[in-house]
Amino acid sequence: MAAPFTRVCRPLWRIITTTTLNKGARNISSSRQQWSAQNVKTAVAASPWALHGAVCLQRLPVVSQDRSPIEEEFMELMHQMELERSLLSDHELRLLEDAARMSRKQEEDYDSDEEDEDYRDKEIVTAQDLEDTWEQKLKQFQPAPRSQGVDKKDMGSSERCLADSLILLVKKDVGSQKLWLLPQIQWQMGETLRQTAERALASLPGADLKATFLGNAPCGFYKYKYPKDIQKEDSVGAKVFFFKAVLSSHKHLPLEKNSFAWVKKDELQDFLKPEYLKQVRRFIMAL
Amino acid sequence: MNTLLNKALLLQNTRALVCAASSVQSQVLTTQMPLGLLLTNRQYRSMPTHGIGKYRHLLPKALPKKKKDRVQAKQIKAATATEFGVFNVCVSGYDMTLVEHYSQYIHNLCNHLDIKADESYALPTKSTEVMVMQEQGTKMYVDAVLKTHERVVQISEMKATLLPILMEVVLKNQPEGVQLCVKQHTEVDFQSRFKTRPELEGLLAKINN
Predict the structure, then answer these.
(1) ipTM at complex level
(2) Which of B204, B62, B190 is nearest to B118 (CA)?
(3) Cα(A232)–Cα(A50) distance, rounded to whole angstroms?
(4) Mean pLDDT value across chain B
(5) In CA terms, which of A119, A130, B104, B146 is 20 to 30 Å from A58?
(6) Which of A6, A13, A79 is the best mutation test for B, with the most CBs of B within 10 A?
(7) Residue with the larger pLDDT of the pair B122 and A161
(8) Distance (Å) from the C-alpha of residue A104 to the closest C-alpha of chain B?
(9) Given this model, what pLDDT does residue B99 score?
(10) Quick one: pLDDT band at residue A5, thresholds 50, 70, 90?
(11) Which A residues in the span 144-173 are in contact with B, Cβ-Cβ below 8 Å?
(12) Does the beta-carbon distance from B161 to A64 stay under 8 Å?
């Protein structure tokens, strides 16, 4: 259909002039102008396909992936090579100087006036003392845990599998059966498909999810026909356009397990229908 | 007789002079010589060895040294309906190896996807002193010095349909401890790279006041 596509492409320039995306430690915030709904072209012939906008909401990985054994070995090797090739740092030089000075002091013909002028400050706090204080501080530091202790099978929590990117799935009744699919909603007149996708995300019951949409162009497309008994002359089936979005804030209440799920790419086949899965798989990257 | 002798002597003298000067190839003497006694060593163009010994034409053209021009601000391209204008991808963090490797990764990704990366530069390092208050007393002492490194990759004229793909790949591969910021390039960003000249500004202020 020509009409929705022009609406998708035209407001692009307005986005670009006012957008600033800041992504620091996965805290994403953006400010965009709300563009007003454009004038509806009433001279468009009604097509038998209903339009839907869907959102592919992703939770990005929080920690880096674990290294494979070969990678571990290689990393050790590189560290060792770097250590062997490196020169001594200031701190290490100072340690050696202090050790030499101590050994000189033990000798009988030691004359303290022969030392350098500035050694008196170093005598009070030696480099070894500094190292000890630093080690104490390091012991007090607790790094954040690499996994939040959430069970891997708990699909409702967005804290599972921190090293992978997860996609939100929603259980919806389509026709007579309940299906797992990406959140989608029907397109209304006078809005862009991206607005439809945003509405689809906002209208999810019981979930307060803040997301940043990446761009105005849809990333995927799926077309399906209604079953024969529902098909009428002017409604043959539906076309779904997918938009990509990235989850912004971190702290989320766990969602209802029966209707929401956060899944990895390889777990998708347990949830989605084969035809739908084939189209959706094309635009989901498992990095 | 005397005049003849004089003339002969004169001629002999001049001939001696010419012989002595022939090695110098002085053109002045030849012009002064009377006709019939043209003794020049200038080689004629048909001679096979004409121009032997010339080398100046083989050296590369040495342009006259010009003073460095002031770096001109490039025209910042505006965005169109399907393409972005100029925008900066800033990578910043405390760990220099991570920041540099990440910015190199982004640059290589742009090259691979045929996205034009205009410039790739580094902003000056900022040092932050972490001061800790002493337990007993009000004095603060310096605990640590943290350095923030920043690298910028400037991208121009990128197709808008490619942005979601690029952003997704870049975000999914962001390492821990590194902040990513994507923003539009403005004149202010360009000017902030230059050093300030305090004396010049002081003088300008004095003139204006």
Answers:
(1) 0.75
(2) B190
(3) 12
(4) 82
(5) B104
(6) A13
(7) B122
(8) 32
(9) 96
(10) very low
(11) 165
(12) no
One-letter amino acid at A262 equals: W
CA distance B75 to A230: 58
**pLDDT value for B113:** 93
Instruction: Pinpoint the alpha helices (H) of chain A.
Output: 2-9, 12-18, 69-85, 90-106, 119-124, 127-140, 193-202, 274-281
Note the maximum CA span of chain A.
111
- Identify the residue whose tokens are 């971190």: A250
pLDDT (mean) for B78-94: 87
For residue A208, is pLDDT > 70? yes
Q: Look up residue B159 and give its DSSP letter.
A: B
Burial of residue B166, with CB atoms counted within 10 A of its CB: 0-12 exposed, 13-18 middle, 19 or more buried: buried
How many Å lie between the alpha carbon of A11 and the closest alpha carbon of chain B? Answer: 8
């190896």: which residue's tokens? B97
Q: A237-247 and A49-59 as β-strands: parallel, antiparallel, unpaired?
A: parallel
Residue A4 pLDDT class (50, 70, 90 cuts): very low
Among residues A7, A16, A59, the alpha carbon closest in space to that of A245 is found at: A59
Contact between A162 and A146 (Cβ < 8 Å): yes
Separation between Cα atoms, residue B74 and residue B68, nearest integer Å: 17
| Closest to A240 (Cα-Cα) out of A221, A219, A262, A260 | A221
Dist. CA A260–CA A252, nearest whole Å: 13
Q: CA–CA separation, A223 vs A285, rounded Å?
A: 21
Give the closest of B84, B164, B169 to A16, CB-based. Answer: B84
